[in-house]
Known about the structure:
This protein has strands at 24-34, 41-51, 58-66, 73-81, 86-88, 96-99, 102-108, 119-128, 133-142. It is mainly beta. A five-stranded antiparallel β-sheet has the order 1-2-3-9-5, with no helix packed on it.
Amino acid sequence: MTAGQSLCLIVRTQASPSVSGSASMAYGLVASTAFTGTSRVTLLRNDDAVNVSDQGDVLEYRIILSNPGANPATQLSVFETIPAYTALSSSIPTPVTVVPGVTYSLVAPVTNVPGYSGPIEWSCPGTFPPGAEGSVTFQVQISP
């Protein structure tokens, strides 16, 4: 790939109709990027889970936050959007401590209720230490 190009990876999961209402599956996707002319390699990992529910298809999204640098990161925000054809299946947990001393609070949506569809924003006014890793999550239900 060259600078400016995008790559889209799609993970497809499928379950038999006979799977119980409490079944789940977790998987991780790791992308390794090597930069031409340097020895730098960057790893990006996305962990997801698929849970079977008797109430309909519910997907959980987990956004992994990491600081691989040598310096702390400050004044952080995380932006996401509820995927098309889905809506929140439950309220988004807030505030959430991602690592000791680092708490993210939900800024948007103001109405954090099931059925919401639109942008999401978490804010962390504190310091994210070097080498730290944590996550924020939300669950959506596929619209009929």
